[in-house]
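User: Could you check the structure of this?
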Amino acid sequence: MRYRLYIFSITFIYIFVWGCTNQNQNWTHFRGSGLNGHALVKNAPLNWGESSNIDWKVPVKGLGWSSPVVYEDQIWLTSAARDGKEFYTFCFDFETGKLLDEKTIFTSEDPQRIHSTNSYATPTPCIEKGYVYVHFGSFGTACINTRTYEVVWKRDDLPCEHMQGPASSPVIYKDMLILHLEGTKDPYVVSLNKRTGELIWKSVRPPEIYDPIQPVYRKSYQTPIIIEVNGRDLMISNSAFMCFAHDVYTGEVVWTVEYGYDSTVSMPLYHNGIVYVNSGWIFLENKPSFTRQYAIDPSGEGDVTDTHVKWIYEDEVPQIPTPVIVDNRMYMVHDRGMVTCLDIQTGKPVWKEKLSGNFNSSPVYAGGNIYFINVKGECTIIKPGD
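Assistant: Sure, the predicted structure tokens are below.
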């Protein structure tokens, strides 16, 4: 086992661009262009500070837990006023950090309350050639032309009782923009026409299952992935209580796996034909709450809980951070700092190591190393391996 090579700090109020980053290697979504936490750089830095490996830094107005997205010569970011009454978008020049555009894209006179550890701008935008899509949950969704900076369309009529604030990020797929609005009442998923904002389909979580659940346990903050299985494009959505596979073109539910109550946050992963998802908190009598990691064969139909689950792992599985997979090993950091390396074929742990601090952000694989950043901005870099 090789672990903890370097520790250093960064300040999240600034945008950092590593000098080795290649403009052609775009970062288009939350967790990257592949939605898997892999950055396509060969030589990511192992240390940085005021005098090294930082091209530029700029202050950003407001507060937001969203990640920046990159396309060619632009970086886009969202933020919001701390009181939730204004929602902002920013565009920066990739090379210089110059502010190219800033907008107050939405306002709210009476915003919903959010959790003390959340922000009003937690969903990460997504971007493609010519257009960026920004999303603030029920507060609004918009498409902006990245060359003219004009708003192409915007809508704020997708209701959601977030309870603790928005967090699910939008996903582009072909001509669609997919949004999860899974709150405490009537949680649902929508597919919009990405050019017009018009509804393509809407899928409401089954009321016969969700209505009996306490409202606090219905909400979800995960971001979906799209995979191809036997010639069919499926959207994998690990909602509260159960994981859904939808036909991405119609919203039809193809299969489900039930795993228990409470919110889900981390994203699904897909590797070598298997889907990996984290549950929300599991509550069992006389046992502290915990989270499970599921490995699922995605080729089934209907309720496949008893037929297509390959393995389940439940020892210090994260509730918020999404794992990263490198070379048939899954690396995940628990919210309280325990890193586990799993053999993804068997679900058995290879090694475990405790890091300092608590974690909300997800690890990133870049330049042959895995980066873990805790809530204080301290980063631990490990070399993947046994």
